[in-house]
Specification:
Length: 406
């Protein structure tokens, strides 16, 4: 009996790996043949007051990078920069030189990057001259083999804080391709609420630093503003508030939920919450790329399409570009913008940060951005989805057990 069970498990694993390898190979071949994507431009940056701070939403990489580099150039005391991916291309070099220039004029500079995400970048690119402090989050961690979440999560965050007063957070990594060819969303906060981002950086740095890294001062804050709050996932402490943030907001929805995700693989509770909202008459729309940069993630997501469409959730597939944004807005009042995807890796695995904002003005701007993106989407209908090829159905079924891994 056990031998039979073992052979069955081995056969399933073999089928999963074979299908995944085939999808990856086919996707790589198609991408080589595909013409370079045209520049993706959506909405212009818009400044809006939220409480005692000013927020700006960026949906185009070059606009964002210009603002980030301007902030770095104007820094007087301290720069904190954390990026999951930081490519060694022209934009990567511009950011690198900007930090060196800031350091040369006496600004304190602290940098964090993820070693695994940047394995394709030459290591010397991150060799900054003293006194710039650089933390390379390890490419391989002790808990990876044992699947120990506390010791295996990646640093997936993207944060820039300048002089404790200007903060940036969102989905954009640093690199040429993201500047013009990807559709993403980032938020700038100017004012006292930038503390939310500084605090997240300081906590991570002080927790992860080695003996050769100086501690960052954690000076607390006498400023409390519930309308702008950061939710920070910390796997080392088994703290994952972003998932709870989504569940609470979805459960409150009465009119509409607009979600934009690069990778959308919700767990059972989030899936049920979305279906429950649709069932009580909420207009639930999920926008994602028709073809992302991770083909296996696409297929795992497609395994949920039938349930979503039958449950009244509408699916909108972005055309011609990679949507990498991690945003949602609900009922014209609540918004989140950050680094976490709605999948297992982000919500219960990686270090992530999402900002939660209660503000009608920002929510209205996010709805305007969503409407603009919808114009570049096609809606997937249940009738169309039912007509997909039997091979696609089989592949979805075989890959389904891999869903918790992503």
């Amino acid at each position: 009996m056990f031998a039979t069970l073992g052979r069955f498990v081995l056969a399933v694993l073999t089928a999963q790996l074979s299908i995944a390898a085939t999808l990856i190979g086919w996707d790589a071949m198609v991408r080589r043949r595909r013409a370079k994507r045209e520049s993706v431009r959506t909405t212009d940056p818009v400044e809006l007051p939220v409480a005692d701070s000013t927020t700006t939403t960026y949906t185009y990489g070059e606009d964002l990078y210009a603002a980030m580099l301007e902030a770095i150039a104007g820094a007087q005391k301290q720069i904190l920069l954390e990026s999951y991916i930081w490519k060694g291309d022209s934009y990567g070099e511009r950011f690198r030189q900007a930090l060196i220039d800031a350091s040369n004029r006496g600004v304190e500079v602290f940098v964090i990057y993820d070693g695994f995400a940047n394995l394709v970048v030459r290591r010397s690119f991150y060799d900054f001259p003293a006194p710039i402090h650089v933390m390379r989050y390890p490419a391989v961690r002790a808990g990876l083999i044992a699947l120990n979440i506390r010791k295996s999560g990646r640093d997936h965050r993207k944060i820039l804080v300048v002089d404790d007063h200007i903060g940036f957070v969102g989905g954009y990594n640093i690199g040429d391709v993201y500047a013009t060819e990807w559709r993403d969303t980032h938020l700038r906060i100017v004012g006292p609420s930038a503390w939310e981002l500084r605090n997240a950086f300081v906590d991570f740095w002080n927790t992860q630093r080695g003996t050769d890294h100086p501690a960052l001062l954690d000076h607390g804050s006498d400023f409390w503003e519930p309308r702008i709050r950061a939710a920070v996932n910390a796997p080392a402490h088994m703290v994952f508030p972003i998932r709870g943030l989504y569940l609470a907001a979805i459960d409150r929805a009465r009119h509409h939920i607009y979600i934009t995700q690069g990778y959308f693989i919700p767990d059972r509770e989030i899936l049920e919450a979305l279906l429950g909202a649709a069932g009580r008459g909420v207009d639930v729309r999920v926008l994602m790329p028709e073809v992302s940069n991770h083909v296996v993630a696409d297929w795992l997501s497609r395994g949920l399409y039938t349930t979503l469409l039958r449950g009244g959730v509408s699916i909108w597939l972005y055309q011609g570009a990679m949507v990498h944004a991690k945003t949602a807005t609900i009922d014209g009042a609540w918004t989140t913008i950050g680094t976490a995807n709605i999948d297992r890796l982000s919500l219960t695995g990686n270090y992530e940060i999402n900002v939660e904002i209660y503000d009608d003005g920002l929510a209205a701007e996010m709805e305007r951005i969503f409407a603009r993106d919808l114009a570049n989407c096609r809606q997937l209908t249940l009738d169309e989805w039912k007509r997909r090829h039997v091979v696609a159905r089989f592949s979805e079924a075989v890959l389904r057990p891999m869903r918790p891994l992503l």
